[in-house]
């Protein structure tokens, strides 16, 4: 993307406008990570990222699919660097890259069976080590890609509703459901079931930000009987719970979760009592990362929520940490409910191969 | 190419490059056999290749040679479906065969690239017996300036673990050789377990040197991740349900199978590790969960 120097050339207004929007988005992302709970939900971030990518496709200068992919990758790297914990940005970028590859393949006329994924079959039958370099120019490519991105946006808009529609199959009358913190997806899920069924919800407050309180207020406004408990009481209360339903920040490639802190405790307590753990996560939260990258996995925010600065004397003698996320291994999860239906954690690899291309795992 | 020439060629390939996987040597030998074959029909070609593979498994009874042979046969079938004329077909087969060999020679590098990020600085790794793929992964991690130490089991009856320890010492990696019986004892100190595989079965489990199953069970009990590194040509169409289900021809060395009458008195050389004990598999097709393995096999054989 070319910047300020071309102020005299036509079409440069569009480009500077585009650059400004990207910069605005980046600074928004950087600010949004202050940890007092998400200032914007993941769904909004996903929608904004996709809209921005559509704008880049429409307004940036590119002549072949390869150029467009390079531009998007470059912007993508900057966006993920701005806020590494916000994985939905990276996921949307990878979805769009896959869309571009598919549209390119379709324009070339090659069937989608010549799927670019590595496989044993491909090893045996391919005729050459030729690399697909995406250099051919197709006039209709831009329009096709923009149309496909529009479809993606429509899908994103419907995700929460699609998940909530499945609520009646999973929640039965007189059940006791436990959840932790505040998840918009789980909120919609429970509210949808509450229209037809009567059940009881126990919300773990999820210290130190105590988002559970907001969740409980919102649920009780919808007429659901709610109880708030402290995180320490999770194990004690678990024996009375029928199901645990939680949201998550990210679903990792091995089927594990990166969720709000306290979720691993909840999952272990559920496993101990053989209570099913259901995760409501839309497809845009699925990320091709594995939980090995310790450096970028955790996010620590200001510890004054845990131990306020007013406790002056002991501050110099004590180390205080305030991590935001928890890792939950796939063995503890029973079911994933996403906008395309319910899946077992062992099926995640299949969904990943359908959403993203292996070469895009590293932007 | 008759039997002796075949066996001699195979042995020569193994001698020439001791670092090469036995499956690759088998495929190379079969490709050479294909080039020299004077048959007139594709069916005849398939039959002679099948008997050649049997001959090779008579020399080296490991799962890898068998899976390499099966893969090559599959390759022949797929190619022969495209071209009906034998001479044209053979030309295409030879070209593709060379290409295939080139690709799989890069597979170890791909596996190492995927796996080394899972080794963190200061990690203590436990491994079993001598595996060239694991060695490659550890080489890559050492080259990335990661500090780690390794525990290797001695792995009787052939003490292959000592060979591994020697190779690691040359890389300046601190290594300790432990008894096979000491796996449970050492696991509390260890951060992760990485093993190679002689074969990866359809369920996502692995067949590897005896003692691997024990190590996997202990890792599960200690909650340590158990990683398997294997190239994709080791995927084999077997589905053992327990240890007894693994065919005898893989369990014992080729010489033992030929000479000994009563196999129940022999010690098996391999065991089967079920997929429930494996955390992740690193292959040149990517990082796979055990449930993803059967998908890959289906894609090939369907």
UniProtKB/TrEMBL annotation, chain A:
Subunit structure: Component of the translation initiation factor 2B (eIF2B) complex which is a heterodecamer of two sets of five different subunits: alpha, beta, gamma, delta and epsilon. Subunits alpha, beta and delta comprise a regulatory subcomplex and subunits epsilon and gamma comprise a catalytic subcomplex. Within the complex, the hexameric regulatory complex resides at the center, with the two heterodimeric catalytic subcomplexes bound on opposite sides.
GO molecular function: guanyl-nucleotide exchange factor activity; translation initiation factor activity
Record carries keyword Cytoplasm: yes
Gene for this chain: eif2b2
Function recorded in the entry: Acts as a component of the translation initiation factor 2B (eIF2B) complex, which catalyzes the exchange of GDP for GTP on eukaryotic initiation factor 2 (eIF2) gamma subunit. Its guanine nucleotide exchange factor activity is repressed when bound to eIF2 complex phosphorylated on the alpha subunit, thereby limiting the amount of methionyl-initiator methionine tRNA available to the ribosome and consequently global translation is repressed.
Family annotation (SUPFAM superfamilies): NagB/RpiA/CoA transferase-like (SSF100950)
Keywords: Cytoplasm, Initiation factor, Protein biosynthesis
Name of the protein this chain belongs to: Translation initiation factor eIF2B subunit beta
Biological process terms in GO annotation: animal organ development; central nervous system development
Cellular component GO terms held in the UniProt record: cytosol; eukaryotic translation initiation factor 2B complex
Keyword Protein biosynthesis in annotation: yes
Pfam families referenced in this protein's UniProt entry, alphabetically: IF-2B
Family designation: Belongs to the eIF-2B alpha/beta/delta subunits family.
UniProtKB/TrEMBL annotation, chain B:
Keyword Nucleotide-binding in annotation: no
GO molecular function, one term: translation initiation factor activity
Subcellular location: Cytoplasm, Cytosol
One Pfam family recorded for the sequence: IF-2B
Annotated function: Acts as a component of the translation initiation factor 2B (eIF2B) complex, which catalyzes the exchange of GDP for GTP on eukaryotic initiation factor 2 (eIF2) gamma subunit. Its guanine nucleotide exchange factor activity is repressed when bound to eIF2 complex phosphorylated on the alpha subunit, thereby limiting the amount of methionyl-initiator methionine tRNA available to the ribosome and consequently global translation is repressed.
PANTHER family cross-referenced by the UniProt entry: TRANSLATION INITIATION FACTOR EIF-2B SUBUNIT ALPHA
Protein name, UniProt field: Translation initiation factor eIF2B subunit alpha
Organism (species): Sphaeramia orbicularis (orbiculate cardinalfish)
């Amino acid at each position: 993307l070319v910047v300020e120097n071309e102020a005299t050339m036509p079409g440069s207004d569009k480009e500077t406008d585009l650059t400004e929007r990207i910069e605005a988005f980046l600074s928004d992302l950087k600010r949004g990570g202050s940890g007092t709970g998400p200032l914007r939900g993941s769904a909004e971030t996903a929608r904004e990222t996709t809209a921005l990518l559509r704008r880049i496709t429409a307004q940036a200068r590119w002549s072949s699919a390869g150029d467009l992919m390079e531009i998007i990758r470059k912007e993508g790297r900057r966006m993920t660097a701005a806020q590494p914990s916000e994985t939905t940005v990276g996921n949307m970028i990878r979805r769009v890259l896959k869309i571009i590859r598919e549209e390119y393949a379709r324009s070339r006329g090659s069937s989608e069976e010549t799927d670019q994924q590595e496989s044993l079959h491909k090893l045996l039958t391919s005729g050459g080590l030729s690399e697909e370099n995406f250099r051919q120019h197709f006039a209709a490519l831009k329009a096709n890609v923009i149309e496909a991105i529009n479809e993606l946006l429509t899908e994103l808009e419907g995700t929460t509703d699609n998940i909530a529609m499945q609520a009646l199959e999973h929640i039965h009358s007189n059940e006791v459901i436990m959840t932790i913190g505040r998840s918009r997806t789980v909120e919609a899920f429970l509210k949808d079931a509450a229209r037809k069924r009567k059940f009881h919800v126990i919300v773990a407050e999820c210290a130190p930000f105590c988002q559970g309180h907001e969740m409980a207020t919102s649920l009780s406004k919808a007429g659901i009987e709610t109880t708030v408990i402290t995180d320490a009481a999770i194990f004690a209360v678990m024996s009375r719970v029928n199901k645990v339903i939680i949201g998550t920040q990210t679903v990792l490639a091995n089927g594990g979760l990166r969720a709000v802190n306290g979720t691993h405790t909840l999952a272990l307590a559920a496993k101990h009592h053989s209570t099913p753990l259901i995760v409501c996560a839309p497809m845009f939260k699925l990320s091709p990362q594995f939980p090995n990258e310790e450096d970028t996995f955790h996010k620590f925010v200001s510890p004054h929520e845990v131990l306020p600065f007013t406790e002056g004397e002991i501050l110099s003698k004590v180390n205080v940490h305030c991590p935001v996320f928890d890792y939950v291994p796939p063995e503890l999860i029973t079911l994933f409910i996403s906008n395309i239906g319910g899946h077992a954690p062992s099926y995640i690899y299949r969904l990943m191969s359908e959403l993203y291309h292996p070469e895009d795992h590293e932007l | 190419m008759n039997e002796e020439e075949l066996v001699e060629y195979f042995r020569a390939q193994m001698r020439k490059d001791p670092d090469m996987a036995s499956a690759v040597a088998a495929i190379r030998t079969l490709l050479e056999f294909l080039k020299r074959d004077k048959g007139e029909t594709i069916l005849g070609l398939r039959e002679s290749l099948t008997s050649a593979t049997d001959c090779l498994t008579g020399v080296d009874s490991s799962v890898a040679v068998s899976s390499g042979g099966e893969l090559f046969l599959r390759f022949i079938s797929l190619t022969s479906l495209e071209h009906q004329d034998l001479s044209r077909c053979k030309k295409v087969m030879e070209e593709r065969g060379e290409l295939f060999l080139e690709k799989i020679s890069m597979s170890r590098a791909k596996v190492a690239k995927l796996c080394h990020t899972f080794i963190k600085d200061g990690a203590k790794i436990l491994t079993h017996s001598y595996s060239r793929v694991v060695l490659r992964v550890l080489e890559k991690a050492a080259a990335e300036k990661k500090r780690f130490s390794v525990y290797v089991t001695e792995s009787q009856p052939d003490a292959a673990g000592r060979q591994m320890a020697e190779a690691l010492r040359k890389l300046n990696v601190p290594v300790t050789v432990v008894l096979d019986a000491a796996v449970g004892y050492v696991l509390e100190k260890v951060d992760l377990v990485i093993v190679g595989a002689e074969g990866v079965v359809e369920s996502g489990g692995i067949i590897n040197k005896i003692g691997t199953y024990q190590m996997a069970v202990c890792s599960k009990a200690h909650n340590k991740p158990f990683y398997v590194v294997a190239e994709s040509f080791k995927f084999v169409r077997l589905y053992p349900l327990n240890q007894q289900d693994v065919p005898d021809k893989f369990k014992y060395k080729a010489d033992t199978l030929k000479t000994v009458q009563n196999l129940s008195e022999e010690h098996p050389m391999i065991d089967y590790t079920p997929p429930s004990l494996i955390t992740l598999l690193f292959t040149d097709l990517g990082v796979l969960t055990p449930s993803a393995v059967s998908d890959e096999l289906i894609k090939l054989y369907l």
